[in-house]
Amino acid sequence: MAKTVKVETGFVARDLQLEIFKQLQRWNVLVCHRRFGKTVLCINILVDAALHCKLERPRYAYFAPLFRQAKQAAWDYLVEYTRAIPGVETYVSELRVDLPNGARIQLFGSDNPDAVRGIYLDGCVLDEYAQMPARMFAEVLRPALSDRKGWTVFIGTPAGKNAFHDLYQQAIADDDWFATIYKASDTGVVDADELAMAKRHMSTDQYNQEFECSFESAIPGAYYGVLMREALDAGRITSVPHDPAMGVETFWDLGIGDATAIWFLQRIGANEMHAIDYYENSGEGIAHYVNVLQSKREEHRYNYKTHVLPHDAMARSLQTGTTLSATLQDLTGMEPVIIEQASVAHGIEAARNLIPRTWFDVEKCERGLECLRQYKQHWDDKRQSYTNKPYHDWTSHGADAFRMAAMYKPQDSWTGWDRQVVWPDVGAY
Length: 429
Known about the structure:
This protein has two domains: 15-210, P-loop containing nucleotide triphosphate hydrolases (Rossmann fold, 3-Layer(aba) Sandwich), CATH 3.40.50; 237-407, Nucleotidyltransferase, domain 5 (2-Layer Sandwich). Helix content is 34%, strand content 21%. It is built from 14 helices and 17 strands. The chain has helices at 15-23, 38-52, 67-80, 135-146, 163-172, 184-187, 192-201, 204-210, 225-233, 286-300, 324-332, 344-354, 366-374, 395-407; strands at residues 27-32, 59-64, 89-91, 96-98, 104-109, 123-127, 151-156, 177-182, 237-238, 248-253, 259-268, 272-282, 304-309, 337-338, 358-361, 377-380, 385-390. The chain has an eight-stranded mixed sheet with strand order 3-4-5-2-6-7-1-8, with helices on both faces. It has a seven-stranded mixed sheet with strand order 9-15-12-11-10-13-14. It has a two-stranded antiparallel ribbon with strand order 16-17. It starts with 14 loop residues before the first helix and ends in a 22-residue tail after the last helix. 41% of the residues are buried.
């Protein structure tokens, strides 16, 4: 008979943390204010589960938005709370801990979802889920949990009305989920004097988001956060039907080894823009996106007027010796428009002028809307301030494609467009 060894990891749960431990289900959403101790809590949830799992070779994972964030936020805690376990093995380069019962806990970043495809998991924690790609859980982690019926804890502090907000709303309405929200004014974890001082030092939006878990506050550093909230309040994020009498323009951001994003827009009258559709994918060639254009044309009767590409579409491929612009023209029969290179700051300002005149389809543009809401300035850790440069992450592709729309100035009128595009067969590409 195996000998049972009692181990003290050193973790002493607060009352609220213990309350969470007792109520955990298979699916969980924890919305917590800053300094609640959510990362420490969830590392210990992983350790406890790994030590008690009866399955062969248990696998558990902690995900942060970026790999370096996982290392900074959670690695020291994982080492600290497993150090006392006899026979534990630590692998720093992989941010991995192997336990004597065959269990493994590893830290990952969600900045490259495809890198973890194919693994299996008995449980995982997604920390700061609001900053992760929307497809991270549905396409990659949910399948990894299926065969062993693994569990998930989503944790974070609000960052606007994004996927984390939607997940929390879904969870509180579903009996199969455990969902809770902890505001600093209720928990007592941060004392009243410190909260009062923080309120003086922070903007109202910053304080309400970070300490009062407000999903309504604009994301700090977000270029378009306030504008997107105003669009929602004004009812411009709604159902926006395609107008078959008007031409459809597509605006692209081309990813070389990265995501490619496409906005589908219609200009209504002199000043109004309708964002009727959005598409994004990665790891695909130009023929894939041409097939997407064709399928949308057949399904929704989109009558394309022009495809607008960024200046880098004129770069020649080392494999084919031709440009993406030329390839797109060959496959669609339409000559695309190339936007000349301009400063990103100029494009962002143009986008700020376009958003208040744009109506967005809430369903078809869901991913693009998230990109616009969360597209933000780069934070300089040394100077402790935002720079005038954008932070490049998953939001950049949709935001950059929309920037193309803001910078494009059509030469002709949008009315009376009836050009018919003959599509070649691109299925063989």
